[in-house]
Amino acid sequence: MYFCLQLWVLLVYHKQQGTGYAPILVFKKEKEYLQSLPSEKICSSYKNKTFVAKVNKNSLFNYKGSQYSVPAEYIGKTVHISIGDEKMYIYYSKKLISLHTISEKKVNYKENHHLQMIEKTFGSIENIEEIAIEHLKQLENFNEQLSGIE
Q: Treating both helix axes as pointing N-terminal to C-terminal, what angle do 128-149 and 111-122 enclose, rounded to 10 degrees?
Protein backbone atom coordinates (compact mmCIF):
# COMPACT_ATOMS: atom_id res chain seq x y z
CA MET A 1 0.00 0.00 0.00
CA TYR A 2 2.84 2.36 0.91
CA PHE A 3 4.49 1.71 -2.47
CA CYS A 4 1.28 2.68 -4.29
CA LEU A 5 1.11 5.92 -2.32
CA GLN A 6 4.75 6.72 -3.17
CA LEU A 7 4.10 6.02 -6.85
CA TRP A 8 1.02 8.24 -6.83
CA VAL A 9 2.99 11.10 -5.23
CA LEU A 10 5.73 10.72 -7.87
CA LEU A 11 3.23 10.83 -10.71
CA VAL A 12 1.18 13.73 -9.41
CA TYR A 13 3.57 16.03 -7.55
CA HIS A 14 7.22 15.47 -8.45
CA LYS A 15 8.67 17.37 -11.37
CA GLN A 16 10.62 15.35 -13.91
CA GLN A 17 14.10 16.47 -14.92
CA GLY A 18 13.40 16.35 -18.66
CA THR A 19 10.22 18.44 -18.74
CA GLY A 20 10.19 20.28 -15.44
CA TYR A 21 6.56 19.19 -14.95
CA ALA A 22 4.84 16.42 -13.02
CA PRO A 23 4.02 13.44 -15.28
CA ILE A 24 0.29 13.78 -14.65
CA LEU A 25 0.32 17.34 -16.02
CA VAL A 26 2.26 16.33 -19.12
CA PHE A 27 -0.13 13.44 -19.67
CA LYS A 28 -3.19 15.71 -19.43
CA LYS A 29 -1.72 17.95 -22.13
CA GLU A 30 -0.65 15.10 -24.42
CA LYS A 31 -3.92 13.22 -23.95
CA GLU A 32 -5.75 15.53 -26.33
CA TYR A 33 -3.35 14.52 -29.14
CA LEU A 34 -3.55 10.76 -28.56
CA GLN A 35 -5.48 8.65 -31.05
CA SER A 36 -6.97 5.22 -30.59
CA LEU A 37 -5.12 2.21 -31.92
CA PRO A 38 -6.08 0.97 -35.39
CA SER A 39 -8.27 -2.11 -35.72
CA GLU A 40 -6.86 -5.55 -34.92
CA LYS A 41 -6.98 -6.40 -38.64
CA ILE A 42 -4.58 -3.56 -39.45
CA CYS A 43 -2.31 -4.28 -36.47
CA SER A 44 -2.07 -7.98 -37.31
CA SER A 45 -0.95 -7.19 -40.85
CA TYR A 46 2.28 -5.77 -39.38
CA LYS A 47 3.04 -8.90 -37.38
CA ASN A 48 5.15 -11.67 -38.88
CA LYS A 49 3.35 -14.97 -38.94
CA THR A 50 5.47 -17.99 -38.02
CA PHE A 51 5.05 -21.74 -38.28
CA VAL A 52 7.13 -24.91 -38.54
CA ALA A 53 7.35 -27.41 -41.38
CA LYS A 54 9.19 -30.62 -42.11
CA VAL A 55 11.38 -30.69 -45.22
CA ASN A 56 10.54 -33.62 -47.51
CA LYS A 57 12.95 -35.83 -49.49
CA ASN A 58 12.77 -33.41 -52.44
CA SER A 59 14.13 -30.60 -50.26
CA LEU A 60 10.69 -28.91 -50.19
CA PHE A 61 8.16 -27.92 -47.53
CA ASN A 62 4.49 -26.98 -47.92
CA TYR A 63 2.93 -23.56 -47.40
CA LYS A 64 -0.67 -22.84 -48.42
CA GLY A 65 -0.75 -25.46 -51.17
CA SER A 66 2.63 -24.54 -52.64
CA GLN A 67 6.04 -26.05 -52.05
CA TYR A 68 9.25 -24.11 -51.39
CA SER A 69 12.86 -25.29 -51.39
CA VAL A 70 15.66 -25.22 -48.85
CA PRO A 71 19.24 -26.49 -49.15
CA ALA A 72 19.41 -30.31 -49.42
CA GLU A 73 21.23 -30.65 -46.09
CA TYR A 74 17.92 -29.87 -44.34
CA ILE A 75 16.00 -32.82 -45.87
CA GLY A 76 14.08 -34.55 -43.09
CA LYS A 77 14.57 -31.66 -40.66
CA THR A 78 12.01 -29.28 -39.19
CA VAL A 79 12.43 -25.66 -40.19
CA HIS A 80 10.85 -22.47 -38.85
CA ILE A 81 9.18 -20.15 -41.34
CA SER A 82 8.43 -16.49 -40.76
CA ILE A 83 6.08 -14.69 -43.16
CA GLY A 84 6.21 -10.92 -43.63
CA ASP A 85 5.92 -8.42 -46.48
CA GLU A 86 5.13 -11.15 -49.05
CA LYS A 87 8.45 -12.78 -48.17
CA MET A 88 9.15 -16.11 -46.53
CA TYR A 89 12.17 -16.37 -44.24
CA ILE A 90 13.21 -19.94 -43.50
CA TYR A 91 15.32 -20.70 -40.41
CA TYR A 92 17.00 -23.73 -38.95
CA SER A 93 18.31 -23.40 -35.39
CA LYS A 94 17.88 -19.60 -35.63
CA LYS A 95 20.05 -19.49 -38.77
CA LEU A 96 18.47 -18.01 -41.92
CA ILE A 97 18.84 -20.76 -44.53
CA SER A 98 16.62 -19.49 -47.35
CA LEU A 99 14.41 -16.64 -48.49
CA HIS A 100 11.49 -16.94 -50.93
CA THR A 101 8.94 -14.54 -52.33
CA ILE A 102 5.47 -15.99 -51.71
CA SER A 103 4.20 -17.34 -55.01
CA GLU A 104 1.12 -18.82 -56.64
CA LYS A 105 3.32 -21.46 -58.31
CA LYS A 106 2.90 -24.98 -56.94
CA VAL A 107 6.63 -25.78 -56.85
CA ASN A 108 9.21 -23.10 -56.01
CA TYR A 109 12.79 -24.30 -56.29
CA LYS A 110 15.85 -22.13 -56.05
CA GLU A 111 18.28 -23.38 -58.70
CA ASN A 112 21.08 -24.20 -56.24
CA HIS A 113 18.67 -26.04 -53.88
CA HIS A 114 17.42 -28.11 -56.81
CA LEU A 115 20.92 -29.01 -57.96
CA GLN A 116 21.88 -30.05 -54.41
CA MET A 117 18.78 -32.24 -54.18
CA ILE A 118 19.50 -33.89 -57.57
CA GLU A 119 23.13 -34.53 -56.55
CA LYS A 120 22.02 -35.99 -53.23
CA THR A 121 19.46 -38.22 -54.96
CA PHE A 122 21.51 -39.46 -57.92
CA GLY A 123 25.06 -38.96 -56.70
CA SER A 124 27.88 -37.78 -58.90
CA ILE A 125 26.81 -38.57 -62.46
CA GLU A 126 27.92 -37.10 -65.74
CA ASN A 127 26.07 -33.94 -66.89
CA ILE A 128 24.21 -33.59 -63.58
CA GLU A 129 23.94 -29.81 -63.95
CA GLU A 130 22.35 -30.19 -67.39
CA ILE A 131 19.94 -32.79 -66.01
CA ALA A 132 19.02 -30.45 -63.13
CA ILE A 133 18.44 -27.51 -65.50
CA GLU A 134 16.25 -29.66 -67.77
CA HIS A 135 14.28 -30.90 -64.76
CA LEU A 136 13.74 -27.30 -63.59
CA LYS A 137 12.40 -26.41 -67.06
CA GLN A 138 9.97 -29.33 -66.82
CA LEU A 139 8.86 -28.12 -63.39
CA GLU A 140 8.31 -24.63 -64.81
CA ASN A 141 6.12 -26.12 -67.56
CA PHE A 142 4.28 -28.11 -64.90
CA ASN A 143 3.66 -24.91 -62.90
CA GLU A 144 2.32 -23.15 -66.03
CA GLN A 145 -0.01 -26.05 -66.80
CA LEU A 146 -1.33 -26.04 -63.24
CA SER A 147 -1.95 -22.30 -63.28
CA GLY A 148 -3.98 -22.75 -66.50
CA ILE A 149 -6.26 -25.26 -64.75
CA GLU A 150 -7.22 -23.04 -61.82
A: 120
